[in-house]
Amino acid sequence: MTRIAPLVLSLAALSAASVSASPYGGELQGFDYPHPRQAHALTSQGQSLSMAYMDVRPERAGNGRTAVLLHGKNFCGPTWDDTITVLVEAGWRVIAPDQIGFCGSTKPRGYQFSFAQLAANTHDLLDSLGVERVVLIGHSMGGMLATRYALQYPDAVEQLVLVNPIGLEDWQAEGVPYASIDTMVEGERKTTFDSIKAYQLKFYYDGQWAPRYDRWVDMLAGMYAGPDREIVAWNQAQTSEMVFTQPVVHEFPKLRVPTLLMIGGKDRTAPGANRAPADVAARLGDYPALGRRAADAIPDTQLVEFPALGHSPQVEAPDEFHAALLRGLTPR
Fold it and tell me: Taking a C-beta distance cutoff of 8 angstroms, is the pair 41, 48 a contact?
């Protein structure tokens, strides 16, 4: 498999090379999606909302199957660009939504964020498109959402694919102290291109950075640099609280769909570790151990490990990742 060699940067060098993000609107106005961006209108919690999504189909007759790609908290539907191309070329219809509160979708005020609600929103989108059964592929926070969706709508899921999902451990139960939304929004307001990049360099890519990753940092940072920065920060704080307080790991044994678990072993993502006691933080985010523990807990699981890769194997080593993904997708 061909793997693009990353440019290795130290944290010190990164700090010295300050970059300003392109300012984007709160619904990613100004950012170019790799495929036509569509909008699904829905009413949720008494509000009229719009859910952005891409719906990409093979040019010729496909295999009659649909894959739904669920983005992580620090990602968007467009981050799946390479995966969409590979799956469409293999005959799949691919739907990649932006969740409410994220990216190209509405940033609502006074919204009660929950994985159950986001799953219901996604199910509403698929129902509007006439899609009954899907292969559900969730990355990072999208893995937590995909798990909730599969528990909530088991008959609508052919197969569950979890790509470096967060939530393989219960951080609060492990000893990470709670932080309120009011506390977290203060940190969100300080978010910049450099702070996002530094975080991802440390936790996602094991200290190795490739310039092609910058596009995805700019995508996120641009919303904080734009005119809607306040509601962007507020929704991000709300969804951080959702991630922390709504673990799915305890429900893994209840999953009743075939599951492909794909783990980059260099990942050390652990939300809240920065506010945890040092001894607690040191044991969090051990993805090789967490992945194997999750594989033991989920009844029908195939575990694929990428020991040299980090949090986003589909971005870091697309050829290696997609070859493994296509092998792991179960035939109908």
Answer: yes
